[in-house]
Fold:
Amino acid sequence: MSTPAPDSFRITSAPDLVYGVWDDKRFETKSTDWVQVPGAEVHLMLGQGWPSQGARFVATFSAEALCSDTDKDGQGVLQATVFFGDEQGEPVSTNHRFATARGNPEWSSHTLIRTVRFEPDTAVRDVSARVRLKLNGAEGGVQNWFLKIERFSL
Structure:
C-alpha cells in the first residue's frame, strides 16, 4: 500500500453523509469582494452536541456561468470557490478562474471541486459550506447551479 502525497488523501469508504442543494435562478454580480450565491449553502457543524470527530468535506459545485469584461480588455475573470465557515476549500491559487470573458458573453457549464479537513475538536464550530463569487474587471454570474457536499469522518 503506497502512502498518499502530502497534498492528497485516500478515501476507502463511502461518505458518511451527502448533502445537495440547487436552484435555477440567475444570480449576477459586479462585486470585487467575495459575495455569496443566494441559497448555495449547506449548514454544517462540528463539536459538542454534533459529531465531534474531525471530518473531511468534499464540495462539488456545478453551474452555468457567464462572465463579461467591463473594460473590454479581455481580462475579465469570474472566480468561484467554496468557503467552509471562514476557510476556503482547497486547492485554490491566487488566480483560480471559474469563467473568463472571451468574445461575446454566453452561458456555459463549469464545475469546481474543493476540499477541507477539520481535526477532532470539542469546540462547537459552524463550518457551513457556502459558494462565493468574486470578479476582476468583469460582471458575471451563475444559474442552474448544484452544490454537493460529501462528509467523511476522520
The mean pLDDT is 87.
